[in-house]
Amino acid sequence: MRSPRRILPYSISRTAYVEYEPGVVGAANEVIQFIRQAAPWMHVEHIGSTAVPGCAGKGIVDLMALYPAGRLEDARAVLDELGFQHQKSGHVFPEARPMRVGAIEHDGKRYRLHVHVIAMNDPEVASLRRFRDVLRADTALRDAYQAKKLAILKSGVNKAADYTYAKGEFIRSVIGEA
Fold first, then answer.
1. Which of 73, 77, 171 minimizes the C-alpha distance to 124?
2. Domain boundaries, the chain
3. Which residues contact 138 (CB under 8 A, 6 or more apart)?
4. Which fold has domain 23-175?
């Protein structure tokens, strides 16, 4: 497996419904290894719709880069040095809990990336894992989530922040948060 020399620029596009594409797994694994080589003290996982086989979504590869206590500044610096960019659109995360964006080319296809930078001990980590794992285990729930996302887009919602907000109730119900 080759690693990208640098993370490519992120391209902003309208939110769309993208059928599941199995190449996302290889792209995610490539980026995970790339980050781990630069920062072996970080743990990186594939999350979101692209981490669920057969689940359609925005087609963006979501990762969470988990850092140990006291290393947020180091985590941000490593990702910035690798070529990830500061988020400038959608639901913009604060630098206290940042998200970095970028893209890679993997097997001739370009994949957009969202890297959520989260403290290892943050309760959000368990919520993100739980949502991914429940959708992996329950195809009916996965299909309901896809139907919800498609309905949101068909209603005319096409801005990333609005789309994310509209999915929130479904996600909270799955992970057991009010």
1. 171
2. 23-175
3. none
4. Beta Polymerase; domain 2 (3.30.460)
